[in-house]
Amino acid sequence: MPSRRLTVAVVTLALALASRCAAQAPTRISLDQAIDLARQHNPALQAAHTQIPQSQAQEITAGLRPNPTLAWDSQFLPFFQPSQFTAENINQISQFDMGIGYLFERGQKRQHRLEAARDQTAVTRAQVNDIERALVFAVGQQFINAVLTESNLQFAQEALKSFQQTVQISEERYQAGDISESDLLKIKLQRLQYQTDVFAAELGRVQALASLRQLIGYAAVPENYDVAGDLAYTLVKGSLDDFKALALRQRPDLLAARRGVIAAQSQYTLAKANGKWDLGTAFNYSHVGGLSSGTFFFNLPLPIFDRNQGEIARTNFAISQAQLTETATAESVLNDVINAYEAVRSSDQVVQLYLSGYLKQAQDSLEISRYAYQRGAASLLDYLDAERSYRQNQLAYRQTLASYMAAVEQLRQAVGTRSLP
């Protein structure tokens, strides 16, 4: 029985420790998860999304009908002659009026107001989608930067560990009299560079993760979160014409500009409708002199001077402005696509240069120099130069991969979709 209790206690303790370790393990998020979290939790984007229901609320206002008016009055009441307050006097002398009026809108103003409000909501929705597009691009860029700093940190730690072995071998060779004290000191001083690289990479990683967390939303991820991803090369196969056509169909800012033309035309139609003056009607019930009567009233302004000419002219020019804005936006979209596509092509060519043999050549050069130095067949300067060239080559390759991935993200932003052909 004691043995069984001991076993249960050990299992319980192990499960508790495992649970604690799992709780302390950092949360790792992928690029897609980071984008989804940013869409849900970024406060700036959430604030922008409130513009849509605000615009929809304006649709409710635009669709409201005029309120009827109710009026009444009592005249010739003998307040200062109380003795005259008799039913006969009130019936014969006093006057009572009650009326109800309603304004009939002409020119289908309500329908045009509602149409203009709905068109403006469509513009607002497209503008918010464009804000989201910019946020997704920023998240993608910062995520790649975080992955780059992770890769640089890992490389710096591995390089420092490898160089530590070189230092140990050099100390052994110094004790054996194979190298001078000056060479040993040079190697130890070179270790400072590797240690500095580790500290710089750690700082860059912390800053990159903090910037990414700000874009995602501080409440969306824990403080000790991390990114899950690698610097990877993925070939983009679409042609420039494909990307142009896709951008002209899907870019939210261009859609907003196109819907802005429709909204401007709706405002022009509404301005023309507002040029038609409304008909005011009322029915009034009166009781005076013992008699009850009813009266109809009608009033209609004569459009001699004010026919809403100024607003009609302004909204007509606004249509031209919206059309020119659409043209300028379309040209800007095409320019963005061309620049992003060429950036991808240029980055791709640089990546191919590294993959064609430069990486392997730098690795082989370092291994040969290290092997020769450890056996006394190469000078210290040759070995340190090979170390420096290899480190620079590796860091440049990682930066090139990150630049290529950032260029692909830029192309996605320019096209307006993350699903490239």
Condensed summary:
The chain has 421 residues and is α+β, with helices and mostly antiparallel strands. Helices cover 71% and strands 10% of the residues. It is elongated, with a radius of gyration of 39 Å.
Give an account of the 3D structure.
The protein is of the alpha+beta class. It has a single domain, classed as Outer membrane efflux proteins (OEP). 71% of the residues lie in helices and 10% in strands. It is built from 11 helices and 6 strands. A hairpin with a 2-residue loop joins β5 and β6 (291-299). The longest helix has 68 residues, at 109-176. Mean pLDDT is 87; it is low at 6-11 and 13-23.
Secondary-structure element order, N to C: HEHHHEHEHHEHHEEHH
Helix content: over 70%
Looking at the structure, the CATH topology is: Outer membrane efflux proteins (OEP)
**CATH architecture title:** Up-down Bundle
Shape: elongated
Domains counted in the coordinates: how many?
1
Strand fraction equals 5-15%
- What is the number of strand segments? 6
CATH H-level superfamily: Outer membrane efflux proteins (OEP)
Low-confidence stretches: 6-11, 13-23
The neighbouring-strand order within the major sheet is 2-3-5-6
Most strands sheet: 4 strands, antiparallel
- Terminal residue distance: 68 Å
The CATH class, by name, is Mainly Alpha
Count of DSSP H/I helices: 11
Average pLDDT taken over every residue? 87
Question: Using only CA atoms, what is the Rg?
Answer: 39 Å
Classify the secondary structure makeup into a structural class.
Answer: alpha+beta
